[in-house]
Amino acid sequence: MVAQDQLFIPVILGSIREGRRSLHAASYLASRIGAAGHASEVVDLKELALPMYSEEDGEELHAGVRALRGVLGRSDASLWLSPEYNHSFTGVIKNAIDHVDTELRRKPVAACGLSGAAHGGVRASEGLKVVLIEMHAVPIRDSVHFSEARHLFDADGALLRPEFEQRVDLVVNELVWYARALKWGRDTVPVPVRR
Ligand SMILES: Cc1cc2nc3c(=O)[nH]c(=O)nc-3n(C[C@H](O)[C@H](O)[C@H](O)COP(=O)(O)O)c2cc1C
Q: Which architecture does CATH list for 6-188?
């Protein structure tokens, strides 16, 4: 692959809980984006420590808010990973989205879930797609649902269930296709006037 074909696809990690199981899953997702020849990084909402969205003066100058908007602004696509909390995606993800302005517009997003149960956070990822649409982002159909999270990775973050690799790679490949198509579209197709 030639350098100009390389895309930047960050992984937004939506769990800040002590002992969070999503951390290894997010690193794994970023590693598979790398294996496909693209640049990635884990955007850890715990490290960004975003304030609760309040529109207070200077909020947009918060280092975490600037970092989040900067990384999404540079991205060609993004992959969002949320555990399921009370049948939804996490509050920190919603707060992060509330801080975003135009950085996701007309870019593809993959919403992925994780849970301790068998369904792997499908309610979190489906709900997240609906919210991301409001950002003018383009959620793709496919997701990874990391089920039975306790048994997915060892203490060093090695994947214990190799069957997930194929699913992750499918989602990465779909995201890359949409990223290329929408990048071409943003560069060449006039955006409709909104009255
Ligand atoms: C506040 C809270 C609410 C949860 N609600 C659900 C739920 O509705 N459905 C579910 O399958 N698992 C639920 N779980 C279990 C989590 O999905 C599981 O603990 C998962 O590991 C959380 O991801 P994390 O470790 O990255 O924070 C909940 C966990 C927490 C802490």
A: 3-Layer(aba) Sandwich (3.40)
User: pLDDT tier at 141 (50, 70, 90 boundaries)?
Assistant: very high
Indicate the length of the chain as a whole number.
195
**Centroid of ligand 1 to alpha carbon of 134 (angstroms):** 25
Question: Within 6 Å (CB) of ligand 1, which residues are found?
Answer: 15, 17, 20-22, 83-87, 114-117, 149
Look at the alpha carbons of 173, 178, 10, 51 in this order and tell me if their dihedral is positive or negative: negative
pLDDT tens across 22-53, in order?
Answer: 999 999 999 999 999 999 999 999 999 999 99
Instruction: Report domain extents, the chain.
Output: 6-188
Atom of ligand 1 minimally distant from the CA of 19: 25
Q: Which of 130, 118, 110 is nearest to 29 (CA)?
A: 110
